[in-house]
Amino acid sequence: MKKNFLSTLFFCLLAATLLAQTTGDVLRYSYLQPGGTARFLGAGGAFGALGAEFGVLSQNPAGIALFRTNELVVTPSLRFSSVDASLPGNIALNDKKSSFAFDNFGLLFNTTPKGKHWKTVNFGIGLNRQNNYNASIFYEGNANGTIMNGLFQDAVSTFNNGGNAGNLYPFDTKLAFDADAIYQDATTGELRYDFTGNENANLNRSQAINTYGKMNEMVISFGGNYDEKLMVGATVGIPFVNYRIEGEYIEEDKAGNVEVFDKLTYTEYLRTEGVGVNLKLGVIYKVSQAFRVGAAFHTPTSLSLTDTYSNTFAYEYSVNGVGYGGDVFSPDVDGVSDYKLRTPWRASASASAVIRKMGFISADIEIVDYTNNRYNFTGNAPSQQNEIEERAANKAIQRAYQQAINLRFGGELVLNQFRLRGGLNLLGKPEAGETGFNKAFTAGAGVRGESFYLDLGWRRYMGKGAVSPYSGAPKVTTENVTNDILLTLGFKF
Description:
elongated, 14-stranded antiparallel beta barrel, 5 helices
């Protein structure tokens, strides 16, 4: 396992740690912002009691039973993200990023059994987007303290326990040692660094972080319609993770507060890839022609993940007016870590009112307990050290998070062949002690024909987050806004 070092948290969902599997990382795979089709997005994703929408296969698979034709859907998407980040006492800086992707692709096959009671038995296969990781952040300002304090303490601990420079962690502390940011006294052999007696120095610092990737879920779904009253369904979900983060952290002594030290630059790269599996079960019951209720249960998702990472460290200092320094690189072979993560189960209940020839209104409530995220570091590499780190990480998760409730509301207005949609998402905050909701507003429009439909959907998500470049660093606050625009082309055949 790797050491916890540089961590960030965007959007209250995008937890990224360059160099570690930490408490923050689990939100990346368990705090979901599902995409799917433009209709699903535009009506707030509140389709748990409605069905007949491909996005619902990742929500309440009983909805597949309400399809009446074979369908092919494809949904390209655009994302625009904006993050305002600021150090305490410094002005906020804005960073923006845009990306193109596909939020959905699916095929659905409708059959009508010969039996008396089962009206449809349907099968669907495709992909639905569960998270989009494309974002960027930048901040700059002055604050007290330095990343070198933690690196120096780590080196001292290693030496005091009988180790030497060869035992230092090669992706951070060893880099600092090789760059002469940490050194041994020529006379006594004791470890030294330039911040002795000035550990709380005021330094200029900046950080640029760029994240890329997505989590797409392959869905294999079955469902049946019994007597036009009870719909049942099941989905085998296979999420695919592709995530990358690149970060650069800089400290500079522009005011000359620290003798000798001039500047340091620490860059990190992390790529996470993996695959998982879960099972979703759902029911929808038509209380009347106008009123429907639904319920769904999602088992925990079991993910097998691989991290690949590499780092560089540059240190610049001056002695008697002469400058020294250079770049040091992590080992030629990138660090690789294989591990497993189990995300929490989910349960939801839904209700909708269908107004004949006019449209619908719908609401979903979902419960998820983020304390149930669990790492497994010993499945691929059993050892006492990995077991100790696994227990520590899982205990930290239980302390850091809480159970949360997600609410989704949506509606659609029918105007002959045209549709207008709107919705609201209230997403419970996963962090322990936090109250209230992160919000997303949605809207959409579409046109429906006998064999073709075209839908446009938009979602604006707003949340707050934080960035902490190292343990004990001044916390950087963020104001985050993302705009997702989806266009779905659908064909009935």
